[in-house]
Design brief:
Shape: globular
Largest sheet: 6 strands, antiparallel
Low-confidence stretches: 7-11, 206-212
Number of helices: 6
Number of domains: 2
Radius of gyration: 19 Å
Distance between the termini: 55 Å
Mean pLDDT: 85
Strand order of the largest sheet: 8-9-5-4-1-10
Strand content: 25-35%
Helix content: 25-40%
Structural class: alpha+beta
């Protein structure tokens, strides 16, 4: 009886800790620490899309170095290849290939009365990513990107507050500064996500720490 209890403890606590660096449970909300490929199955051979840095996902299962996840978000009707974090906010959670689009299920449809755009609440279940790119605390993701923002985006002018612009305004604003700040595409993409999640219209909804 004791041996069985020890085995269960090792299986449920120790093994997940060895894989993820902490013990995660089914249904846990986690975040992508980097831009990472999404796979249709555990084998991880063929990518069906890309999960963006900072994206929130939900753990369904973990096996060795892979994690089965659920992605919940929004997409603009007619634009099937992109899943966004929030309705009406162009914060990209995932970009999908045709095989990935086929797996998306529409939960509900709403119309934005201000823009007249139709948005779909969607879910992408039972897809896989490499578990090493998942973290429990999203601020661990932002803490790696924030210093780069502070360093590069204050070279030519005073550092802007992250809440200066909305989530939809930041991408075009940063594109103007990218060349001056000598940012690579990867760096620019990461800073863009950081700024969008800390923008004035989403910082409270995203559950992110409000920082300059």
């Amino acid at each position: 009886m004791v041996n069985k209890a020890i085995f269960i403890f090792i299986l449920n606590i120790i093994v997940p800790f060895m894989i993820f660096g902490t013990a995660f449970a089914k249904g846990d909300a986690m975040f992508a620490s980097s831009t990472v490929n999404i796979y249709k199955d555990r084998a991880g051979q063929v990518s069906i899309g890309q999960l963006e840095v900072g994206a929130k996902v939900y753990l369904l299962k973990e096996e060795k170095d892979m994690a089965e996840i659920s992605i919940k978000g929004w997409r603009q009707k007619g634009l099937k290849c992109v899943i966004y974090a929030f309705e009406g906010k162009r914060i990209i959670l995932a970009e999908l290939e045709p095989d990935g689009i086929k797996l998306v299920k529409v939960v509900k449809t709403v119309k934005d009365e201000d823009t007249q755009l139709v948005w779909e609440r969607v879910v992408l279940n039972n897809v896989w990513i490499k578990s090493k790119y998942l973290v429990k605390d999203v601020n661990k993701v932002w803490s790696k990107i924030s210093p780069l923002f502070h360093e590069r985006c204050s070279m030519c002018h005073a550092l802007p507050r992250t809440t200066t612009f909305t989530a939809n305004q930041w991408p075009s604003t940063l594109r103007v500064m990218t060349k001056r700040a000598a940012l690579t595409k990867k760096q620019a993409d990461e800073i863009t996500m950081f700024l969008q999640y800390h923008a004035k219209d989403v910082v409270k909804r995203a559950g992110a720490t409000r920082k300059r």
